[in-house]
Amino acid sequence: MPIYIDRAVDLGCHEGYPGHHVYNALLERTFVDEKGWMEMSVYPLYSPMSFIAEGSANYGIDLAFPGEERVRFEREVLYPLAGLDPATAEAQAELLGLMRGLQRAEYTIASDYLAGRIDRDTALDQLQAYSLVARDRAEQRLSFIERYRSYVINYGLGRDMVQAWIESQLGDRWEVTEQLLSSQTLPTDLSR
Ligand SMILES: [Zn+2]
User: Fold this and answer.
1) 13 alpha carbon to ligand 1 midpoint, in Å?
2) How remote is the CA of residue 14 from the centroid of ligand 1, in Å?
């Protein structure tokens, strides 16, 4: 499926810097290189670590492009590169901000579907109605839910909990993030 313009910043920050690549590099340096804990060179995907990984990767987008910086970069650099009208960047950013509030609907739908309380068609209808996505994207989300199951909460809830934790700590947000990504912090630690 084609991707939208907002995915460019998302993917760069989420997968690269300061997201997954940095987390994996810091885990390797801290635990494998410095302590010799070879088991930490293996990354168990279906594990509590992934809540930190996906949450911090999503928070990394806001960390790297705080406030208006993201829409400014998109309007001035990415829209012209993509041949899109930069005048539409503000409205797109506002829409994305509003749609972020709908993300948690997916957890309820995923939970109902995976527990057998609703069937596949109902899940697809609900994803379209409550997440405001077209049928083809709803199908894509549902196949992700079928494959990854409860992993889906790692992105939105993970980001919210990582963000709340980092911003409640004293000190520079980049430094606090680096500490988090160099640690064995688990989801339960974030709620303390
Ligand atoms: Zn990810």
Assistant:
1) 10
2) 6
Q: How far is the CA of 19 from the centre of ligand 1 (A)?
A: 8
* Cα of 57 from ligand 1 centre, angstroms: 6
For the chain, 192 residues long, give each residue's pLDDT as a single digit of tens. 788 899 999 999 999 999 999 999 999 999 999 999 999 999 999 999 999 999 999 999 999 999 899 999 999 999 999 999 999 999 999 998 898 889 889 999 999 999 999 999 999 999 999 999 999 999 999 999 999 999 999 999 999 999 999 999 999 999 999 999 999 999 999 987
Residue 37, SS3? coil
Instruction: Give, in order, the Cα–Cα distances in Å from 80 to each of 12, 64, 86, 91.
Output: 18, 21, 7, 16
CA of 87 to the centre of ligand 1 (A): 30
Distance (Å, whole) CA 116 – CA 110:
10
Spans of all domains in the chain? 6-101+151-183
pTM of the model: 0.91
